[in-house]
Amino acid sequence: MKKIVLLPPEVFQKIAAGEIIERPFSVVKELVENSLDSGASEINVKLLLGGKSMVKVSDNGCGMSREDALVCFERHSTSKLSREEDLLTISTLGFRGEALPSISAVSRVILKTSDGTGERGSQIEREGEKLIQISDIGFPKGTSVEVRDLFFNLPARKKFLRSERSELSLIVKYLTSVALVYPEIRFSLVHGKRQVFNFPQVSGLKERLFQVYGKSLLERLMEVDYKEDQRQLYGYATSPPSGRSDKSRQLFFVNKRPIREKTLLASLNKVYKGFLEKDQFAEAFLFLTCPYTEVDVNVHPAKAEIRFQDSSPIYKLVARSIERAMLKQRGIKEIYPSQEESKRDFRIEEKSPSVTFRMPKEEEIQERSLFSPSTAEERGYPHVLGQFLDSYIVASREEGILVIDQHNAHERVLYERYLQTDQRKKWPRKLALLPILFVLSPSQVISFEGNQELLEEIGFRIEAMGGKSYALKEYPDIFKEEEAEDVLLSLLEEMKQEKIEDKKKRLLATLACKTAVKAGQTLSLEKMRFLVEELFKTTNSSLCPHGRPIVVKIERKEIERGLKRN
After folding, report:
1. What does the DSSP assignment read for 421-479?
2. Where do the domains of the chain lie, and which CATH numbers do they carry?
3. What is the pTM of this model?
4. What tens digit of pLDDT does each residue of 500-519 get?
């Protein structure tokens, strides 16, 4: 007796339908994608019981003739593809020809449609695989698909549906993301007797973001727009240091398709590392356009995933786009010193490398002639007022008062200088008059052996003396000899758990922390001005390299409100 048999059509059709239609959300997604592809300018969705009882999607798109309306329920029927080569350049959303057949296989469906060419439209009623009725109706140009009793003929599948609230939440999240892609289309959602949202047509993404999330979100975002070759990334993303405690608002769209893709998300979160406070994540609404031949959208039954032909240039594009947007947001072109001033800085650096790293002496600051109060605001910097508790620099701008942590500020300045020095491979070194002898613990020995090359790159030359004893022969010129051993041991502790790709930056951040001015240290007005201006030349004046805030702003309107001036 043979063991392998062919499944009856009514069985394999339900199995196939289950790969496409998993829940009410799947129904909404497939029908809305068809509406989008139809050229609709208005799409309305109605739900009962989170879609478990009913999903209805109506549009004013191109509609269908009677002939097309009948064919659309056949397996693999589509108006989007006609030959194998078309699979390589898919630009439409509903291209599989599986949506309506799969939906009707597991529900009761009423389709109403008209292409506007005749006096009457068509109505088709189906129950499972059965055609119940075809009739003429009065209907405007467009299509309406009403889906009731999802999985009525698959009770085992039906009982695994989520709660009404959970199903509704998935649908709202999806429709919201689609509304961002198509601001020129009106979207509405009604659940039961309640209208969940109604987004009228607007002129662009910024206006749509305002509709969906409100003004407060826009105030936290910066514009992103960068193009390389045939690829472009545009949209909006977090302006540091504002962030969010989760990644739920990291939305990417590839050729207008809402998508979750690990390369895009990894690059986004990598580039923001060090610019947001600990456990904070960027918000992003970013659109990638690229040649259709570079993206495979046909890798998942529900079109939930894509695959890039080569993910490396995409990863780099996201990083460069965000970095350039950050620089533009901070007005780097206006804030950087003039070429003449940069040359003067360079001469000081050549004369005494340590000036670059430590706080300059008073006469060195005066030599630069950059820091008079009258020119600070003209050059785009805050005006320094004084020091509070020997730890915080108080400065003013037209929009309010800034309270700046002097240690964190100096740490950020030094960290970026160290990064530049490391890239030039010109770390100034000192030769110890006598080798500095020290003993390492077993864990420190392991850390040293795994990071010896990195330590030598920044100026620490260490030789093993036998057993657990070591000798420090050279160290970075930024330290006094009595500091060098303590800094080295701190670095070995820091580097025990760090991932390879982060070790160098973490090491430089620790060096910056060790050499920055401390809280409780009195600074002259000239040094405070110097530090504030150097801080606002950096790429990130909001957070220190370890993720701690540098600046607290007290808004002018808050001051006026407190003093009853508004």
Report:
1. HHHHT---EEEEEEEEEEE--HHHHHHHHHHHHHHHHTT-EEEEEETTEEEEEEEETTS
2. 9-199 (3.30.565.10), 220-329 (3.30.230.10), 335-566 (3.30.1540.20)
3. 0.62
4. 456 778 788 888 888 888 88
